[in-house]
């Protein structure tokens, strides 16, 4: 169901974008729910059709989330004219939260699809590359963490995923989006293309450039792609 179709059947309490996001969650995804500090692993996803004659629900989609010892169920329920989204706590570290339910107003699926990642020998985790270090041919984790004495190398993401797990600090802080080709408005020469990363790159709408061909020096409009850049994105 597309965003337009969803909008016609969602009540004012649940945004269409939230419904579509939950429908797109897959096992193995990493989530941030309601903007909290925890990063949740999606360990299972189940879809159920509900056909009870006295049950107003039509279907439900439940995602099993885990973080440390805590386990939650993220549930999207479809009714004839609206959806509801909630978190259920069947097993958590704090026993006082047992069986409680919480409203869901925001879910972010953290992008793990970046073309190049940083790894070190003997570890089972990958990091996003530090862009400044990479510009000088060095391999360092973008999060600044990891083993400071280790020797890192940059490799293609698809050579280590899904065997390696992504560093959650990198995934939360760095949100890669594709940057369309930037051309000089004066001579139409190509200046750059690639990927922008950072917590607010989606808000970028301008780029300051100095053209090496015609000496244009100024700010131009840029188009940041709406989706995350994938490992096979041609802009990489």
Summarize the structure.
The chain is mostly beta strands. It folds into three domains: 3-109, no CATH class; 116-172, no CATH class; 177-228, no CATH class.
Please describe what this structure looks like.
By secondary structure, this protein is mainly beta. It has three domains: 107 residues, no CATH class; 57 residues, no CATH class; 52 residues, no CATH class. Helices cover 10% and strands 38% of the residues. The strands form five sheets. The protein has a seven-stranded antiparallel β-sheet with strand order 6-5-4-3-2-1-7, with helices on one face. Strands 13-12-16 form a three-stranded antiparallel β-sheet, with no helix packed on it. The relative contact order is 0.12. Keywords: Plasmid.
Distinctive features:
3-stranded antiparallel beta sheet, 7-stranded antiparallel beta sheet, disordered N terminus, 236 residues, plasmid, mainly beta, disordered C terminus, 4 helices
Topology as a string of helices (H) and strands (E): HHEEEEEEEEEHEEHEEEEE
Mean pLDDT across the residues is 78
SS-derived structural category: mainly beta
Main pleated-sheet profile? 7 strands, antiparallel
Low-pLDDT stretches are: 1-12, 226-236
The residue fraction in helices comes out at 10-25%
Please give the oligomerization state of what you see.
single chain
Number of helices: 4
Q: Please tally the β strands and state the result.
A: 16
């Amino acid at each position: 169901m597309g965003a337009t179709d969803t909008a016609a059947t969602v009540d004012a309490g649940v945004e269409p974008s939230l419904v579509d996001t939950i429908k797109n969650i897959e096992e193995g995804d990493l989530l941030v729910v309601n903007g909290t500090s925890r990063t949740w692993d999606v360990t299972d996803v189940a879809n159920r059709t509900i056909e009870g004659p006295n049950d107003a629900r039509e279907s439900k989609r439940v995602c099993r989330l885990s973080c440390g010892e805590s386990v939650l169920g993220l549930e999207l329920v479809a009714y004839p004219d609206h959806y509801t989204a909630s978190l259920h706590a069947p097993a958590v570290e704090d026993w006082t939260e047992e069986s409680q339910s919480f409203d869901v107003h925001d879910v972010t699926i953290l992008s793990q699809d970046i073309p190049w990642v940083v790894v070190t020998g003997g570890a089972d985790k990958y990091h996003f590359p530090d862009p400044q270090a990479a510009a000088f041919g060095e391999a360092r984790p973008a999060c600044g963490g990891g083993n400071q004495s280790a020797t890192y190398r940059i490799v293609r993401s698809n050579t280590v995923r899904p065997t390696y797990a992504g560093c959650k600090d990198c995934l939360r802080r760095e949100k890669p989006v594709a940057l369309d080709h930037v051309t000089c408005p004066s001579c139409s020469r190509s200046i750059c293309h690639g990927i922008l990363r950072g917590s607010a790159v989606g808000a970028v709408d301008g780029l300051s450039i100095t053209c090496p061909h015609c000496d244009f020096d100024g700010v131009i409009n840029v188009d940041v792609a709406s989706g995350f850049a994938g490992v096979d994105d041609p802009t990489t």
